[in-house]
Amino acid sequence: MLKLMKYDLKSKRERILAIFVIMLLVQAGIWFTNSSMGSELITLHILTYAGFGFALLLFSFFSYFRYLRSYARRLLPVPTVQSVLSPLLLFWVLLLAVVAIAAIHFGLYILVYSTDILPANFWTVVLWSVLNLLWTAGFELILLMFALTLAVSLRVKGTVWIAIAVFMVVENGLSLFEKKFWGTYISALDNVFRFEVFDPSTVSSGLRLYGTPTVFFWPFLFEAVIGAVLVYVISLLIQKRIEN
Length: 244
Description:
- By secondary structure, the protein is mainly alpha-helical.
- 74% of the residues lie in helices and 2% in strands.
- It has 2 domains: 1-117; 119-244.
- The chain has 8 helices and 2 strands.
- It has a two-stranded antiparallel ribbon with strand order 1-2.
- Helix 1 (2-11) packs across helix 5, helix 3 (39-69) runs antiparallel to helix 5 and helix 6 (122-153) packs across helix 7.
- The chain crosses the membrane at residues 16-34, 46-67, 88-113, 133-152, 159-177, 216-238.
């Protein structure tokens, strides 16, 4: 599977490199055009990184779409499940690269300015947010891949609209199920960087997370099982498509 992922990375390296170069140029432009450090500047940087992370999600999704349309690629002598997991792993690697660049970027801010602006539990919040981001983004990609594979397997017109409908139904259905049984859900990008900022005089840590790893344990476990089942179903649908 790693060989397959390396093959995908090598074949798409120019487009991937272009995405990262543009991201760095945009971030540098934002930094140099804003002389003062402030929450608005940090927010703008975070939104920019989030935007490029979303671009990588779309990039991975359309790469998988091209895989479904490529008959020669589907005949590669590798297990079907590896072909399914390869785009997901590649996406996680690229997303981790974005996170690493963001960490270096923020480290430069700390060197240039000061750490006095950081709440006491800042790094704990960041670690949880990054882990939440990786899982949530990966799970969303699995849902998109499942919706697309199912729509393509039906062999009817309106594949795109069917895929959108399937994605919306599954996404909202899972969220409602988790909300009903556990009162929360983890597979939502609005929860990734969701926390409240408090005055140190009232909350010593300065930040309070929306939910905790303990609160999200059962929704995460549920989604992990659903994700594994969807990957298995996707593999079966692709295998059936190859045989037909």
